[in-house]
Specification:
The chain is mostly helical. 66% of the residues lie in helices and 0% in strands.
Length: 294
Amino acid sequence: MTALPHAQPASPRDMVARVDKLVALPEIYWLVRERLQDPQVEMRELGRLIQQDVDLTARLLKLVNSAAYGFPGRVDTVTRAITLVGLRELEYLVFAGVAFESFARLPIDQINVPSFWRHSVFAALVARGLAGVVGVLHPERLFITGLLHDIGRLVMCLEAPEVVKAVMARRDVGADPNQVERELLGFDHAELGAALAESWRFPAVMVDAIAHHHRPALASKGYLEACILHVADVVSLAVDAQEEENFREYCDAEAWNRLGLDEAMVRTLIQDALMDFLETLELITPGMADGGSL
């Protein structure tokens, strides 16, 4: 194992514990999430709660008035917007926004952060599309899982920047970056992201999928979801590198077969994601839709 400048944490949970306070989700998320768990919750109550956060209100209204939804007429009240998008879509919008904001204010310079979020958003769109194709219940939850699949990379930048630099250097000479992370730390960014998702009280299925999206065969509770994330991740990387014609050869064969995919189907999903990409990116990561690939 390659020597590092100083001792590293013994587990992903150790590393997340040190960073958790820096990226703690704001109170508005927990309040909205708590109320969404109540099947009897009233739209007006949610509307009043969301209106306490000016930025979240603006994002919600922008979303429902976007081409992605195509609702006739202008939607100008939060209560009406919630009724139109639905409660599950609302939860993903709330979380997507606050997750981005939690990291956006932190000093991360080891990686290209705009590129990171472009990749994550595109993977999220593809994951949601794949989930719909293979019949996953509530496919919008795969959008959130897709958005977070690489979040451990940001934690690693904050807590082990020298590891990130070593990984990038060895990647440039052909090494597998995930394997390098495991050599240096004993775990990779996927396991680290899963530990953060667990600390944010995400369902075990989603945590398992994030942990194993590079090696879906190791997943248990979230095996199907891990297969979806794996393919979505590979597709997003291929599109970003302008190698979408070759995405199939980089996909894990077992995951591909488990999902029952064919290349034409995935190419259609890629086109659908490209159509929604810039608008979704701007909604979730304001200011990052300009420049870059995808």
